[in-house]
Amino acid sequence: MDLFVYGTLCHPELLHLVLGHNRVKARPARLENARSAWVAGQSWPILIDGGDGADGLFLPDLGPEDVARLDYYEAGFGYALVPVTVQTADGPRAAQVYRTDPAHWPEGAKWNLTDWVARFWPVTQEAATEAMTLYGRIDAHELARRWPLIRARAGARVRARVEAGEGHARAKVDVAQRHRPYEGFYHIDEYGLSLPTETGQSPIMSRAVHIGYDAALVLPYDARRDRVLLLRQFRPGPFARGAEYPWLWEPVAGIVDGSETPEAAAVRESREEAGIEIRQLVFAGQGYASPGSSTDHHFLYVGLCDLPDDLPLRGGLEEEGEDLELALLSAKDFIARLDVGTYPVVPLQMLGHWFARHHEALRAKG
Q1: Fewer CB atoms < 10 Å away: N or C end of the chain?
Q2: What would the pLDDT profile of 280-336 be if each residue is shown by its tens digit?
Q3: 72 Cβ contact list (under 8 Å, min separation 6)
């Protein structure tokens, strides 16, 4: 099969990742009477009829396995093959192109591959690598369902690579084996690891790791009214542990999506979970929730906002199964409850005690 690609698959490393080889003799091509544009607010393009032409690559003589792998990857974004005629240096050529219905997506600016590489390639590289390890194990429909979580994990790995640290470097760890006995919303990885010692390397040790996500946590604070907002919801962790009361008070919190920044996630989650608009985020720290067994990493903020008396006291997104109870507390009451151990949620305690130490400075911002 001959294929025309116009978007992210024009990046040679991504094409190599998806195909599993780099033997395709790609050459420049152009689809007339069309244009390629960003999907507004997203990290991929769409092809739209009309315009001064869409530039891309002509990929000749793809084999059945090549097409199957491309179908698998592109189906996750809702694309399917349609026939077109493209212009190449050798004249017009019949080809197939992956398209989706542009009516389903808001059109953004003109597509630019260079901009995409600068903004999204590191996360896409991580996500595509994970996605293609699933080829032959799950179908394209299931891959499409998992894409948001795959991208969230990819974003976490990219952020982890640039974190400052000290002590032994990652390269000092010898990985003798790695096995994934469970895949779902979270993953479990089992490692056989040898670590550096004063005399060389340790014997191989078995370690299990819960593969989670980066999350943004926000304590909403109204400095003028001197009050905070908390939300309460059912939590399966305390339930599985045997807690008699598994509905817990927490800050606003949510997974940092794909290439989203933690700050953008904090603002978005405040809107989705509590229906509030954050005017300013005040950074309150970041770190691992349980580094001995989990990759979960938290970014902590106090969010300056308005918390009026008539704020609805239910929140959350129905499509995410959220049913959140909201509560407004004076800063004085919140700090007093922290001091007597009312909240058995360590991230809330960390945010709360940071808030208590900086309360007067935060209040002055009102």
Answers
A1: C
A2: 999 999 999 999 999 999 999 999 999 999 998 887 766 665 789 999 999 999 999
A3: 132, 135, 140, 143
